[in-house]
Write a structure and sequence with these properties.
mainly alpha; N-utilizing Substance Protein B Homolog, Chain A; globular
Length: 136
């Protein structure tokens, strides 16, 4: 698997743990990176996880506005964390093509979500992409 794919999977695992536990102290993040076999010092994966955790409230607001008729607490935990990860990448940079971000998120949803997760993730993220493109 490619390094960036592994980094995104690591970030998803970290977000999942943070969601379940309510926090993700730096030492726990680094310990998870070591357990996951990421190169030291951890780079892209930890940066993604840190950014998502730091901006979680704002990301949740953005996702909530886009995901009509869905509250964050009603979304499956994997789906909402894939959405957070992708929304962070789309909103806060990395210079990535939003369509490539969506494709990567769909891949995570197919691998870690249930049989319908990828459709839900695709729909919400495509709506976010359109919204972001229409903003000045």
């Amino acid at each position: 698997m490619r390094k960036r794919t592994l980094s995104r999977e690591f970030a998803l695992k970290a977000l999942y743990q943070c969601d379940v536990r309510g926090e993700m102290p730096e030492q726990d993040l680094l310990a998870l990176a070591e357990t996951d076999g990421l190169e030291a010092p951890p780079g892209f994966g930890c940066d993604l996880a840190r950014g998502c955790i730091e901006k979680r409230q704002k990301l949740d607001e953005i996702i909530q506005e886009t995901a009509e008729n869905w509250r964050m607490d009603r979304m499956p935990i994997i789906d909402r964390n894939i959405l957070r990860l992708a929304a962070y990448r789309m909103v806060h940079g990395f210079g990535e093509d939003p369509k490539a971000v969506i494709v990567a998120a769909i891949g995570l949803a197919k691998r870690f979500g249930d049989t319908q997760s990828y459709r839900f993730v695709n729909g919400v993220l495509d709506g976010l992409r359109k919204r972001l493109e229409s903003e000045p």
